[in-house]
Automatic annotation (TrEMBL):
<dbReference type="GO" id="GO:0016836">
    <property type="term" value="F:hydro-lyase activity"/>
</dbReference>
<keyword id="KW-0411">Iron-sulfur</keyword>
<protein>
    <submittedName>
        <fullName>Benzoyl-CoA reductase/2-hydroxyglutaryl-CoA dehydratase subunit BcrC/BadD/HgdB</fullName>
    </submittedName>
</protein>
<keyword id="KW-0479">Metal-binding</keyword>
<dbReference type="Pfam" id="PF06050">
    <property type="entry name" value="HGD-D"/>
</dbReference>
<comment type="similarity">
    <text>Belongs to the FldB/FldC dehydratase alpha/beta subunit family.</text>
</comment>
<dbReference type="GO" id="GO:0051536">
    <property type="term" value="F:iron-sulfur cluster binding"/>
</dbReference>
<dbReference type="InterPro" id="IPR010327">
    <property type="entry name" value="FldB/FldC_alpha/beta"/>
</dbReference>
<keyword id="KW-0408">Iron</keyword>
């Protein structure tokens, strides 16, 4: 089976209908035991130290694993992807562009996905067949989400992991379905957590996944992972076709569209505070200004760079933030 890498969530239904094994290069990078070697490889090839670690990691993972075809998202994700795919082309990798239209008009989204289908030689009926199959797996992720925020049984990390992995279904939809079903059975047998502080994690998925364990040590619990949940398409059952489903996907469009869903989830999940994760050198860090103005809830902004673990200063800031939330709640 031919492999194809993706730089972020794309209409994966199209790629699976075309017979590809899809690999999210972000997941390939960050789950590596020696993830730093991908960054080092990129910097040796000329990527500046002041560029995003994710971009360098994607580049390194793509070359190291000999991925020969890549879908690069040109609009609606990282602004550095345009330069990244030019370098990948230079390395002989075949790149297919995809863009989430800035207009966020349904007709424009439809045109973008229709063109994507044309590139890969599949039609709507084939794509819809795959979409319905994938949405059954996405329903399993919704169960884990409910077990996290409503039943207080799933951990924040499990909530993160099983939703973020839906960008590529870990490269095998059948084994991943079995893994999620086993996880649901395991979680169901647990007693509920009794954590005092309910947190939301918003922004790009973190490089520093130890944040989930850290907050639990301070009597807190992440009950909402914003972008990871969007990767799971929680409202897919409301969409009548693939065009509507990706039109409803909040992450690639303007922040005001994201804010509607954020406000609803903060209220529904009874969130006490928000941790907004941003990546060094990423334009999305500027969105923190808007989030703090629009969300009527305490927000702590933390920034990651190359490390896959939190530094001492950030740990202290998170501890102080949770202490403040605890005092405020009392």
């Amino acid at each position: 089976m031919r492999r194809i890498g993706i730089t972020t969530m794309v209409p994966i239904e199209v790629l699976l209908a075309a017979g590809y094994k899809v690999i999210d290069l972000n997941n390939l990078f960050i789950t590596s035991v020696d993830y730093n070697r991908y960054i080092d490889l990129a910097e040796r090839d000329g990527f500046p130290k002041s560029s995003c670690a994710w971009i360098k990691g994607i580049y390194g993972a793509c070359l190291q694993h000999e991925i020969k075809e890549v879908v690069g998202v040109m609009e609606g994700d990282c602004s550095n992807t345009k330069a990244l795919i030019e370098v990948l082309k230079l390395k002989g990798i075949r790149v297919y562009p995809f863009a989430y239209p800035h207009s966020h008009m349904l007709d424009d989204v439809k045109a973008a996905i229709a063109n994507f289908m044309k590139i890969f030689g599949v039609d709507l009926s084939e794509v819809e067949k795959v979409r319905l199959q994938l949405n059954e797996l996405r329903e399993l992720a919704k169960q884990i989400d409910v077990m996290t925020y409503l039943e207080n049984k799933g951990s924040g990390f499990e909530n993160h992991l099983y939703q973020v992995s839906l960008s590529d279904f870990n490269g095998d939809i059948y084994s991943f379905q079995s893994e999620m079903e086993d996880k649901i059975k395991e979680i169901r047998q647990r007693a509920s957590y009794n954590k005092k502080i309910r947190l939301a994690f918003i922004g790009v998925p973190p490089m520093t996944c130890d944040i989930y364990e850290l907050v639990e040590n301070y009597d807190a619990h992440f009950v909402y992972n914003e972008v990871q949940r969007e990767f799971a398409f929680p409202r897919a059952s409301n969409a009548s076709n693939v065009y509507e489903q990706y039109h409803d996907y909040t992450y690639p469009y303007d922040i005001h569209f994201r804010l509607k869903e954020l406000k609803q989830q903060i209220k529904e999940r009874r969130i006490d505070g928000v941790i907004h994760y941003t990546q060094a050198f990423c334009y999305r860090a500027i969105e923190d200004i808007i989030l703090k103005k629009e969300l009527d809830i305490p927000i702590l902004n933390i920034e990651g760079d190359k490390l896959n673990a939190l530094d001492a200063r950030t740990k202290l800031r998170i501890e102080a933030f949770i202490d403040m939330l605890s005092d405020r709640k009392e």
